[in-house]
Amino acid sequence: MAKQALKARIGLAGEFGVASELLKLGCDATVTFGNAKATDVIVYDSQKPHLCQRIEVKTSKRKRFVTGFFQKYGDKTKPHPDYWVIVYIDENNISHYYVLTHDAMGQVQMDRNG
Questions:
Q1: What is the pLDDT of residues 1-16, one digit of tens each?
Q2: Confidence band (pLDDT; 50, 70, 90) for 35?
Q3: How far are the Cα atoms of 11, 12, 39, 62, 68 from residue 35, in angstroms, in the given order?
Q4: What whole-number distance in Å separates Cα of residue 54 and Cα of residue 42?
Q5: Cα(47)–Cα(107) distance, rounded to whole angstroms?
Q6: Quick one: pLDDT band at residue 90, thresholds 50, 70, 90?
Q7: Structure pTM?
Q8: Which residues pair with 69 in a beta bridge?
Q9: What is the residue-wise DSSP string for the chain?
Q10: Rounded CA gap, 88 and 58, in Å?
Q11: Is the pLDDT higher at 55 or at 46?
């Protein structure tokens, strides 16, 4: 399998896994599709559809994640995800989920980048 195809499948597995976990918790969640999207999963309240939460999902089978945080969201005045979910898929194909607010993700990236 081509490296790019595997990467895309792993990314989709993470996005659908996040949506699945949210649905199990009773949230209304849906995966968005397309290459130019800024949000991977949307959580919404059917009674108040204007109060949706945007989630960016990053998935990897390695312990390193590429977020593109400052390239995409360096300008704080532009729209950004409300939450980030980092999904690590281990050697046994078990998914581990780490949830951060957008501000917390920015702090982690700053600390990581030095």
A1: 688 888 889 999 999 9
A2: low
A3: 12, 12, 10, 23, 15
A4: 5
A5: 33
A6: very high
A7: 0.87
A8: none
A9: --HHHHHHHHHHHHHHHHHHHHHHTT-EEEE--SSS-S-SEEEEETTEEEEEEEEEEEEESSS-----HHHHH-STTS---SEEEEEEE-TTS-EEEEEEEHHHHHHHHHHHH-
A10: 9
A11: 55
Burial of 40 (0-12, 13-18, 19+ CB in 10 A): buried
With left for phi above 0 and alpha for psi between -120 and 50, is residue 68 left, alpha or beta? left
Residue type at position 85: V
Average pLDDT over the chain reads 88
> Using CA atoms, how far apart are residues 55 and 87, in angstroms rounded to an integer?
12
Q: How many Cβ atoms from other residues are within 10 Å of residue 37's Cβ? A: 11
Sequence letter at residue 97: Y
